[in-house]
Amino acid sequence: MTRLIILFYGCFLLFSSCKQKPVFIDFTYPEGKYKALVLSYDDGTIQDIQLANLFDQHNLVGTFNLNSEYLGTKRGWPQQNGDTIFQKYVAKDSLLFIYKNHEIAAHGALHKNFIDITDKEILDEVNIDIKNLTELTDRKIISMAYPFGNTNDSIAKLISTTEIVNARTVDDTYKFDLPKNYLIWNPTCHDSKVLDYLNDYLILDKPKLSLFYVWGHSWEFEDQHRWNNMVEFCEKIGKANDIWSVGNGELTKYLKAIKKVQINEYKIVNPLNNELVWIKLSTGIKKLEAGETIEIKTIANKQTSKKNTDHEQGI
Ligand SMILES: [Zn+2]
């Protein structure tokens, strides 16, 4: 009889401990979101003031890629049709005002075309830009957009030796996938096409990390029709509370942090030196702090979990 009671009690303990442990479902973005938005704008011309303002009005975060050696100047850019476009760049001492709520990123100190210059010149373009922008803002500069969008595998490898952790091209994918290589980061689309993809993204409802990545130049919004489209885009996407509007650098750091989390059938360990990550458990959404370990009953769907972390493997 005593044995039976012990056996029953043991089974009860086992059952209740299993019941208390949650099932791991997925990694998510902050607050359990699966969708994200990056707005990446190049050159640092004065039209950024109006654009950053529009983002501010709708609580959207932009990533502004600046040519630091041109800040405060005016210069002409010869066009293929023989015209010259004159650009006026934002003042050096205004960066922390204009981009207060936004990420400041590199775009080459002098906007040289990386496929036409030597490795040393590429490194100078990047490192001088980082140095200038760091001195002007006291921020860490970790993102970049390639001047003219031009890059290749060997340039990306070279960039990986700098402090830059993500670098954007202009090769539109028209998809909402995360990149395979953060240093050859192909965006979803140029902002002239955002309204074509907006509704698809707003109604997207899949438990898989996705990204709507928009790029452009604020000086292109001199065209009123295109500006109006951007206003409409920001108004609508700014109301979506299931989309994480984020700078490219913060997003990259988050995705890298997910990769560092160790997970098996029994537990999830977020290493001590890692960032905070968010996970979805059978019991709900949970913040997993650096250094925190939780025991789990099992992994719900190994395929889904793998898919959610199945991005950047390379440099
Ligand atoms: Zn540019």
TrEMBL record:
Family matches, as Pfam families: Polysacc_deac_1
Domain NodB homology, residue spans: 33-162
Domain of life: Bacteria
GO biological process: carbohydrate metabolic process
GO molecular function: hydrolase activity, acting on carbon-nitrogen (but not peptide) bonds
SUPFAM superfamilies linked to this entry: Glycoside hydrolase/deacetylase
Protein name, entry field: NodB homology domain-containing protein
Organism: Paucihalobacter ruber
